[in-house]
Amino acid sequence: MQAFFFIFFDHFYYFCPLYFLTAILSISVLFLPFPHIFYQSPVFYPIGVPFMFSRLKSKNIIRICFLFLAAFFVGTGAAFLHDHFFPAAVPTSSEGNWGLSFQTDGDPPVGNATFDELKKFDAFYAQDTGEKVIYLTFDAGYENGNTPAILEALTKHQAPATFFVVGTLLESNPELIKQILAAGNTIGNHTWHHKDMSQISTMESFSEEIQTVEKLYQQITGQEISRFYRPPQGKYSEANLKMAQDLGYHTFFWSLAYVDWYQDSQPSHEEAFEKLLGRIHPGAIVLLHSTSSTNAEILDELLTKWEEMGYHFASLDDLIKATAS
């Protein structure tokens, strides 16, 4: 019975006129011998309706049911043919928010896209490997005093990291950019305005967000920025991934992160360790925020614990080289 109603209502919007016409014809069968009922509307309601039901003999009921069932099957069949031979247009690019499903602790999570699906766009969310290697990344939109402690911990453990920076940080704190680089880390492109890039449909608008960062970075450092791109908030489309690729970029999502970006609601150390230790896995790309006071406070201990679990740290350049074959 549930299937019957699902099919009926699923296709009703396509073939409502057919069903409606059949209903009119079915009711008309009752009145064909008595057309005056239709022309004497004031009399129809008090007289016609009782009269109509008085004529609902078994043959008429069967006839009406047959017509309704015939209309249903014809409509459903037509809907099937419509969907089969004239399917809805499929978008040329998928879009959405990057998301992860964690199945088993210690194993890579399942992402919105597979390794192979991302690879054709030079994009990654982790390395498909059994090697206990971690790739550290930080999203950096502004500075609030926590980056120095993060840099100190990275230097102590000789752990290279990539900082994906937004235009506001480049404008407001160029010296910090130099300090990040001097500590042996890499700067990646997190766009100029940190907007929803999945809503950008033209190469001109996309490249403006990317290349404005490139130009200011070169003015500050005298170097070209590493061609590493991370979509703000993980919002992306296949068209965007292709645009980034055409600009010479590799796109990096992540396989491990936690809610660390709310300044007025920072996670406790225990919460952070539970997520970051329990869900670490070989080949992980870890996303942290450099503005998090919790991250600044625990990073030294976190890196130590990961090392005790047998992990070592590598750069995104190493990831690209390892997956080049």
Automatic annotation (TrEMBL):
<keyword id="KW-0472">Membrane</keyword>
<feature type="transmembrane region" description="Helical">
    <location>
        <begin position="12"/>
        <end position="31"/>
    </location>
</feature>
<feature type="transmembrane region" description="Helical">
    <location>
        <begin position="61"/>
        <end position="81"/>
    </location>
</feature>
<keyword id="KW-0812">Transmembrane</keyword>
<protein>
    <submittedName>
        <fullName>Putative delta-lactam-biosynthetic de-N-acetylase</fullName>
    </submittedName>
</protein>
<dbReference type="InterPro" id="IPR011330">
    <property type="entry name" value="Glyco_hydro/deAcase_b/a-brl"/>
</dbReference>
<dbReference type="GO" id="GO:0016810">
    <property type="term" value="F:hydrolase activity, acting on carbon-nitrogen (but not peptide) bonds"/>
</dbReference>
<dbReference type="InterPro" id="IPR002509">
    <property type="entry name" value="NODB_dom"/>
</dbReference>
<feature type="transmembrane region" description="Helical">
    <location>
        <begin position="37"/>
        <end position="54"/>
    </location>
</feature>
<dbReference type="InterPro" id="IPR050248">
    <property type="entry name" value="Polysacc_deacetylase_ArnD"/>
</dbReference>
<feature type="domain" description="NodB homology">
    <location>
        <begin position="132"/>
        <end position="314"/>
    </location>
</feature>
<keyword id="KW-1133">Transmembrane helix</keyword>
<dbReference type="Pfam" id="PF01522">
    <property type="entry name" value="Polysacc_deac_1"/>
</dbReference>
<dbReference type="GO" id="GO:0016020">
    <property type="term" value="C:membrane"/>
</dbReference>
<dbReference type="GO" id="GO:0005975">
    <property type="term" value="P:carbohydrate metabolic process"/>
</dbReference>
